[in-house]
Amino acid sequence: MASEPMRDPIQDDLLTPQNCAFIVIDYQPVQVNSIASMERQRLVSNILRAARAARLYGLPIVHSTVNVATGINKPAIKALRTLLEEVPTYDRTSINAWEDVEFRKAVQATGRKKLVMAALWAAAWVALGLTGFVPGTLVAAGGVLAFHATFALGETLLQPTIPAITNDMAPDHLRGRYNAVNAGAFQANALDGTFGPDRVFVKAPETANVSPMGGYQFFGEVDIDGHSGELTVRLRELDGTVLFTKALQPGRVGQ
Q: Which superfamily does CATH assign the domain made up of 20-121 to?
């Protein structure tokens, strides 16, 4: 009996170790713990088995997380970090991984057009992505609504991804206001010493992503004396209580 000739593993329509890459996105503690559509241990077991298979077959692996460097999120779950310890991690501030330049370049550098993707909250992103094929239609509007509904119905409500989504979707000229309205409270992180900043006052929770109901909501107030030009900055509680005051004298820097 004669066998069929071996197909080209690079050009084959099916997945082969020579024509696909493995993409892992946002398997971080907050995201994993928010999943309610399946048993959590099974979720973790699935991604670990998939990652082991990718390594066994020698697939190029691209691993990405969101908002670890900013302190908003924690790194990937420990078991996955251990398994992928030799794989670079591309941390993003954008919720849309493809908008991150380093991540996109890493995927393109694999040279593979078939991508096996492991990502959480995937149903919402599929619904949103499909709207791009039918822009400006009722179907597209339905897809956007389905995207928001999936997020709202339990998996991402009040999770750390919401500030990133707000920032991405806000108009440029209103982004600051959108972020301010959406702001939760976060712990005081280490300062970047590049330009010599100094921390003169801190009132912050010990953990990240504390609800606004926790009380860590403040507003700033600025007064300028019309005669002396002195500028006074105050940080107030929501009830008006002054927490910190700083007076700045007029004049150029260094004078």
A: Isochorismatase-like (3.40.50.850)
Contacts of 222 (CB under 8 A, 6+ apart): 231, 232, 233, 234
Greater model confidence, 158 or 104: 104
Chain position carrying tokens 């400006």:
136
How is the chain split into domains, by residue range?
20-121, 193-248
To the question of pTM greater than 0.90 for the whole model, the response is no
**CA-to-CA separations, 41 to 47, 77, 185, in angstroms, rounded:** 10, 12, 30
Which pLDDT tens digit goes with each residue over 173-200?
A: 766 666 665 555 555 556 655 556 777 8
Ordered DSSP codes for 131-157: GGGSTTSHHHHHHHHHHHHHIIIIIST
- Strand order, beta sheet including 20-25: 89-92, 61-66, 20-25, 114-119
**Helix extents (H) in the chain:** 29-34, 40-56, 78-83, 101-109, 122-130, 138-150, 161-169, 175-182
- The dihedral through the CA atoms of 34, 35, 39, 44 has a sign that is negative
Neighbours of 144 (CB within 10 A): 12
How far is residue 51's CA from residue 63's CA, in Å, rounded to a whole number?
10
More confident residue, 80 or 32: 80
What mean pLDDT comes out for the span 222-231? Answer: 86
